[in-house]
């Protein structure tokens, strides 16, 4: 899985066992992390024995690969999860090459990762819908099971006031859970007809949440009441969401990665005017969709960094957010130097078709059988 995101002043790119922290202007590497091929060499336990600790189900002979990467809000910590040997690794970010603080076993492969607003803990959701909290101060403390969904959770956000944890899943739901009393559900934001793939809080606007979905909609919610505020139709199912504030508390740029569409990315400017929210401007970025497999992207003040695969090799391309054209100010040689760090890793994009619900039309099959049975009976009567 390829992860890419922008956290000023760093562009973070992860694939295979490596994480690179880049200067987005010239793509020079600030620092890097390379996860060991065998995590037992850095403290990973095949089976955790502490009471309440999830039990790792993987042996040391499986290939390790990074699934999710996240920066803490105070920029002091970096958390990442792995598959093969399922683990959560927490690093201190300030040393030049990052200092590993802890390696903790996960019971199942992670699906989403998010730090608490005060950076004191990190949340990990897994592919069965469970959400665990891991302490970043007492790193040996066992994790706490906070909440659970009945299907895979695709994204998770924690509100700045630490009062709510918001999750979205494959079953069309957005759930707002009270914290720390996570047994108590505050509200649901219901209305999507397919998987909900991304969430984002609007800075400076308490109670407002953006969501995207496989049902080809982008929606704005008041998550405190569960009420929908705005709905924007999209040209294709949406699978990734990035957001940037343009004018404080008034205008935001929402960038959406589409699934299997001639245009790879949609840009939507959300504006508050006369106490009403609307999409003031929209544009599409082709990003040469169709000529390569686009898997993820990051948004900066003037560029869109798009990651994907060409001939099963990780590829990074850069486009202007203003006009959608390829950024000429980024020399191809710089991109090639970055990609050389991942030359030994194959890149096979995730099959996102599995995110969609499988629908079975049993009625049509029944009616067809009934029709054939009636025809057979009529033929027998004619004889």
UniProtKB/TrEMBL annotation:
Q: In the record, which residues are listed under signal peptide?
A: none
Q: Which Gene3D superfamilies match?
A: YVTN repeat-like/Quinoprotein amine dehydrogenase
Going by the UniProt record, its keywords in alphabetical order are:
Developmental protein, Differentiation, Nucleus, Oogenesis, Repeat, Spermatogenesis, tRNA processing, WD repeat
Question: Does the record bear tRNA processing in its keywords?
Answer: yes
Location(s) in or outside the cell: Nucleus
List the InterPro entries: Trm82 (IPR028884), WD40/YVTN_repeat-like_dom_sf (IPR015943), WD40_repeat_dom_sf (IPR036322), WD40_rpt (IPR001680)
Protein name as annotated: tRNA (Guanine-N(7)-)-methyltransferase non-catalytic subunit wuho
